User: Fold SRPBCC family protein from Arthrobacter nitrophenolicus.
Amino acid sequence: MEENIVVARPPQEVFDFLSKFENLAAYDRFVTASGQVGDGPVGLGTRGWGSNSYMGMRSDWTVEYTEFDPPRRLVSRSLEGKRDLTVAFNLEPADGGTRLSERIEVRSGLGFLDKLPDPLVSRILGWSLRGNLKNLARWLAEHPQT
Assistant:
């Protein structure tokens, strides 16, 4: 599943915001809490933790940055939690801002969604992904980081 949006902020600013685990709840409607595991600068191998809530179900997770290429690419892979997934962000300059694409690969752990037909699951995940990217673009436009 992949979605794209143009964010009216420069790539480095978007990358810096995305790479801070504590910012997830600002744009992801299902994240209730998140943060970095340990101290130190964010980079390759940095781990983050979080909690999601969806339809009354809560899940906790831990992820790790497996690619960290500022301000172009950021990839995380789940280490612990109910879902086995990879999330990749690609950023490039576009239209005076940043073209941001987010790709999610889910290998397992969708709960009741695992029982639904693939086209329906794709629509549900696409809706969520598009909403989160719109939230991110809106949040960064209203709260410049520089």
Notes: The helical segments are 11-19, 24-27, 118-142. The longest strand covers residues 57-69.
